[in-house]
Write the structure tokens for this entry.
Amino acid sequence: MITDARKLSAEQQQLLRQQAIELRKKGKTFLEIGALLNVHPDTVGRWYKRYQEGGKKALVVKSVGLKTCHAD
């Protein structure tokens, strides 16, 4: 069963992304990495593309919180 990485904590997501990049550097395919890390191969491909374009900084998980509305 494929894990929805978006439901993991930011720390867990970051670790998963780093593991995916390391496995790719060792010659694993996106399909193999997806199977090993239990995520969709397309997700691995997006992570790797971001890494190629922006390095490790591009893999940083951005916090997504609820936006609050301020009434004046």
